[in-house]
């Protein structure tokens, strides 16, 4: 049998590998030399978008406590109010997204979907069979803890406090939802989270997820503790959120996101395939509308 040098053998294997198209390698042929036919998945570019709830900050609701009266009298407070409401005027945060949270979030934890099964038909000696059921347990209501960068003006903490205070007063009957939300049975204090994991170029979407019906479960006051001699340097805070439904890799997520951006019509067909095309090419850090094409 002829003897081959290592370099010759490697070239021979590579020649065999190149003869077949990569798509055929993985789907129609066995890879007997276990040579990777594509680059491994890697990404460090992700985007997390929070949609606005529609809290009712009407003049009558804002008069229920000194806290709401005072916060609505400042420009900073009005910015927070318009971040949590689509209908609040004067609106200082246009659009359907909460930019404060979207710009400050530092992580997003995904979750496995696990199908439930049931054991049946056990016989006298103990043999039995298992059959799959549903994965509803994995996608129904649960919690997610998110970390945020906190600035010197405590914008995230104040926003979460305002959000929690509204839900608290709504439950106690001190505040009330708008008549339109009440008639249409809309839960006005819940929003949604869109999560996009992109390729290394920051353009191509690899994975996407949506959490529907989110609201914060606590105000991060514990982050402001103090200890003599150590000082307090707050770089990030953690906040747990409750959500109602989790969806992953569902095409409707992209449609919903495009509609939430306020883009409708035939243009949305183009945007679904190029949804993050030019984000990395923006000349400035901040921009108004989301860039797609």
List its traits.
globular; alpha+beta; 293 residues; two-stranded antiparallel sheet; 18% strand; 31% helix
Task: Summarize the helices and strands and which ones pair or pack.
Blueprint: H1 6-19, H2 22-28, E1 45-50, H3 59-62, H4 66-71, H5 75-83, H6 99-104, E2 117-120, E3 129-132, H7 136-139, E4 142-149, H8 155-172, H9 179-183, E5 191-198, E6 205-216, E7 236-243, E8 245-248, H10 251-260, H11 267-273
Antiparallel strand pairs: 1-5, 2-3, 4-7, 5-6, 6-7, 6-8
Outline the structure in words.
There is one protein chain. The relative contact order is 0.14. It is built from 11 helices and 8 strands. It has helices spanning 6-19, 22-28, 59-62, 66-71, 75-83, 99-104, 136-139, 155-172, 179-183, 251-260, 267-273; strands at residues 45-50, 117-120, 129-132, 142-149, 191-198, 205-216, 236-243, 245-248. With 293 residues, it is an alpha+beta fold. Strands 1, 4, 5, 6, 7 and 8 form a 6-stranded antiparallel beta sheet that branches. The N and C termini lie far apart (59 Å). The chain has one domain (42-225, 232-277).
């Amino acid at each position: 049998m002829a003897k081959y040098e290592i370099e010759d053998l490697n070239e021979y294997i590579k020649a065999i590998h190149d003869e077949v198209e990569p798509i055929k390698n993985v789907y129609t042929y066995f890879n007997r030399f276990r040579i990777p036919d594509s680059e491994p998945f890697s990404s460090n570019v992700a985007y997390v978008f929070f949609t606005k709830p529609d809290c009712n900050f009407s003049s009558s609701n804002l008069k229920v406590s000194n806290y709401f009266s005072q916060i609505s009298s400042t420009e900073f407070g009005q910015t927070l109010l318009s971040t949590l409401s689509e209908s609040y005027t004067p609106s200082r945060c246009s659009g359907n997204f909460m930019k404060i949270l979207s710009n400050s979030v530092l992580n997003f934890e995904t979750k496995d979907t696990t199908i439930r099964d049931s054991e049946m038909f056990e016989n006298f000696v103990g043999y039995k069979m298992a059959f799959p059921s549903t994965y509803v347990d994995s996608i129904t209501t649960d919690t997610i803890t998110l970390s945020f960068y906190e600035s010197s003006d405590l914008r995230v903490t104040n926003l979460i406090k305002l959000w929690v205070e509204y839900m608290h007063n709504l439950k106690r009957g001190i505040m009330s939802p708008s008549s339109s939300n009440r008639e249409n049975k809309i839960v006005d204090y819940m929003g949604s989270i869109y999560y996009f994991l992109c390729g290394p170029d920051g353009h191509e979407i690899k994975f996407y997820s949506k959490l529907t019906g989110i609201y914060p479960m606590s105000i991060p006051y514990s982050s402001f503790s103090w200890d003599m001699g150590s000082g307090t340097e707050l770089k990030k805070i953690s906040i747990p959120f409750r959500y109602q439904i989790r969806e992953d890799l569902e095409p409707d997520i992209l449609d919903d996101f495009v509609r939430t951006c306020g883009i409708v019509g035939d243009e949305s067909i183009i945007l679904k395939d190029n949804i993050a095309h030019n984000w990395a090419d923006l000349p400035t850090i901040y921009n108004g509308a989301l860039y797609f094409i």
